[in-house]
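User: Please predict the structure of the protein below. I'd like the answer in structure-token form so I can feed it into my own downstream comparison script.

Assistant: Understood. Taking the following sequence of 323 residues as input:
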Amino acid sequence: MTNENAAYDGTRESTSGFLVTLHPLVILNISDHFTRMRMQSQDVGSSSTPQTIFGAIIGIQSGREIEIFNSYELPYKFSREQGFVIDNAYFLAKQEKFREVFPKYDLLGWYSIGSTPTEMDLAVHKQILEHNESPLFLQLNPLINPALAKDLPLCVYESVVDLVEGNGNVMKFAKSKYKIETGEAERIALDHVARASNADADRGSSLVANLTGQKNAIKMLHTRVKVLKAYIRDVENGTLPRDHELMRQISAIVQRLPTMNSLEFKEEFLTDYNDILLGTYLASITKGTHTMNELVEKINIVSSERKSGKGARGMSGISSFLI
């Protein structure tokens, strides 16, 4: 049986001084990955392969500040001889695609599930070392009781190397502190996910409740306006008698509505419209100038290799003029 303490003794804390920041999207991705794995394993039935999940975490590292923004799943194979083996070809292809979409994000580590790190986790960690010299290990504990838990069932680990007499260098995990940070868009999404409504429940997120209230108010206003229009039409056709008191009330309601045909409104509307168009035109001109500058710089490089310094200085003058 695998000795869990061989990878982590349960008390060791990290001394690297890294400031790890975790965004909620990563937690949602891991939770969703685990839920799908559990549902699929129930459909398939019993299997000789241990049920677990693996994935990569990406983000931005600036010095000792690490910010984890996103994650993606990693397929694997299992054998009794080698244990868990990450699909390296898929890993590299996925990493390259994420670099194209998120050029500022780097590979920061990997994630899995469990209560504490094991030797199998340590073996997977060594595979990730081929892509990052100091990866983080984010572990989700899905078996913890939410009613008894005070903190999130998440732990972040770093790898440390100890010199053990008789065994040489031994790698182990050390727990690292982290904090949760959310943006405004993430707060709205989390509130919606945390209190998602269904067909049998009336509760929902504050965003859904607000939008539902606005929809109902607009729908009611539209219905009342249709009733007033139908009444006025029937009065004009002679179908209904004219009620002067009711007509005065309708006139008062109409007078309260903001007029859209006044000269002040047209001037303000045209001013805003022209400002937006001007901003769009300026952005297009700036982008075109930037593209032209890049083209001139490339021409300067080619000219400096083929022609004399005079020709290169001439193109440089054009470049400085465009800038």
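That's the full token string. The chain is about 50% helix and 20% strand.
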